Structures
1.
Amino acid sequence: MQTIEKILSVENISKKYISETNTVVALKNVSFDLFAGEMLSVMGTSGSGKSTLLHVLGALDAPDGGVIRLKGVIQDNIFNEPAASVYRSNTVGFVFQNYNLLKDLTVEENIALPLILQGMEHSVRVKEMLETVGLMKWKKHRPIQLSGGQQQRVAIARALITTPPIVLADEPTGNLDYNTSIEILKFLTLAKDKMKQSIILVTHDPMVAAYADRVLFFHDGEIVDNYACSPFENNTNRIIDKFKSLLEKK
Ligand SMILES: Nc1ncnc2c1ncn2[C@@H]1O[C@H](COP(=O)(O)OP(=O)(O)OP(=O)(O)O)[C@@H](O)[C@H]1O
């Protein structure tokens, strides 16, 4: 029997934000595994720690405690430079709600950026990515000349160009209409099915969450429930029910 590779193990991650006036516990002993070619959605109440989780997994923010393993190996140095930059450029691709494109660069330059920063040849890969996301005709345009959906396609191409094993997407469809959201989800699904990339997708939208293989529900910094999507269920309705019961317990 073929075993599915465990890409990421998150073990008892905790994170507090401490200011002069108060302390916010953003993550409390969060543990889960992520497998190769798996899409995991993260849903939860506002302020439940979803973005903090992505920041920690992307080595943008250090946790106070806990362990992250990549393919079984403890990553104890990824929150310090230069290891943080190496981890971010080799291991994770980011997709944000607001696209985060560089406004002075063209579409093709934005897409090429991760390879340029690594000093690698990029022209063949950029062409492939432009074709994948259907933006060949727009390659010389700047972000301001594109629709929101087109900008997000550029951001996805940029996140995927180095084929990182893990893609972290924070509300990638949050600013997009239904049809454009489906288009963006199809690109992420292609990355997981074709390239066996693993995706963690934070969303407020149950329809978007239903594209994943599994959904984790967060409340007050903790995983309080989970749901495995099934080809035989109306996953969107099941996710709505789970989320409603989470709100009722609050
Ligand atoms: N830089 C920060 N400094 C202080 N507190 C923070 C910081 N970032 C987040 N928090 C707090 O940590 C908690 C978790 O925030 P986080 O942004 O991770 O939640 P979220 O689930 O992504 O929320 P939302 O769905 O509203 O975007 C919140 O109470 C938030 O106010």
2.
Amino acid sequence: MHILLVDDDAQGRSFLAEYLQLLGHLVTPADSVDSALRITEEHSFELVLSDIAMPEKSGIDLIYALQAKALEHRPDIVLYTGHVDLQLAIDALRAGAFDYMTKPIKLDELTSILERVAAHQNIRLSAPDHGHKHRHKSSFQRKEEHLQEVQDMFSRLAGVERIGIFSEKMWDVVHQAEQYHTDRSMPVLIQGETGVGKEIIAKIIHYGTEHSSLPFVDINCTAISPTLFESELFGYESGAFTGGVRQGKKGKLDMAMGGTLFLDEIAEIPVELQAKLLRVIEERQFYRVGGLRKNKTDIRIIAATNLDFEKRIQEGLFRKDLYYRLKVGHITIPPLRERQEDIAGLALLFLRKFSKKRGKQFESIHPQAEKRLVSYHWPGNVRELKNLMEWVSFMHDGTELLEKHFVKQLSPQKPCFSTPEKKRVERKRPVSNADILAALEECGGNKTKASQLLGIALRTLYYRLDKMAS
Ligand SMILES: Nc1ncnc2c1ncn2[C@@H]1O[C@H](COP(=O)(O)OP(=O)(O)OP(=O)(O)O)[C@@H](O)[C@H]1O
């Protein structure tokens, strides 16, 4: 890579330059932000590696100045600083830095960042070209190679199932998650529509880069009744309930000790439990149901929601103090339709995975089919795309995914049922699994239509289907 190295300290600069050259990179040094900006007018770089604190302008000023320039090729920017300051790191990442390091720079950390920048730059260079069929195909093949590289890296880093990241917006999200991983005391709130990948990001925050073997315990706040919620979360002492286990039971807080408690769908936690949860987070201790002894906690809290928190607060359904306590760290995952660069890569990843599982041949996606996938609005986000690819590899076979394989499954932009509200009011009993299957059949497998027919949220339908499948 061609690296622009910006540091006012000549000694530090030459030490770093020497190391980067030893790794085979071409290094251009600069001693200030202004001189770096002048150099970028004549040369193009894959990486700008810069100190944050410099006498006149800072590394963060450099990010903004580079963003304002119409560069032919956009470099990734990595900043470093002598102060361990999480806020500064967050500011740098928010400004658009690719990553952040603290001095003294650890060479293995630097090497791993360089590898990630190289993979990221490769993805940029292989952005799909929709103009010409043959160019399109070769760019797709290049993308497949990089996809492999990136997936391998993520399965290694996060210790979770293979994930695909192809858009800059998602790379930014992943970098923020890795940054939050470094401070366990900071609660993190993840917001985003249903199916965008909030749980995956929660796992990256938890597992981080060193494959944490500490527990990751999740609790779905919508799936448990208020009475059970308390015993699920706090556990109970022996004799607390008639019918409870004689020797008592550990709660999720106990199970998550030393690790992470992931509170999914947090905005829907009953109001009466919010004060108790706030107390646990603030005091880091809790009572079991029926217990007299205080138990200490040492857990990281990550919460997620797809609801509008501000609205819940205004409606009196969520405590403001708990909201602010949870969102000390904060990540928003954009919906899939706002990161279209992810769609083709993820579709191919899922298509191959499910084809392999079912002994089918699917290997690639026809450009017309890709165009259709990319232009669809994906109300169920990545989960909907994943389910669609599973359905296709179940129903069809071939080497290339064609538009006709899936087009009938896509829901129209506008719901086809004009009176979903009326239907919702008419339903008096809870939706059973049989109702769900019947609705899906009636709607030809289209989940958006089926959820409207049933009068339940699309995400509730996905949740119920996941439960039925497991
Ligand atoms: N980047 C990705 N790569 C691979 N799979 C992904 C990615 N993002 C999401 N998925 C898959 O999509 C599905 C939905 O993701 P996840 O459960 O993390 O979403 P969520 O935002 O937590 O949804 P909900 O709000 O409904 O709980 C999962 O099966 C997950 O594995």
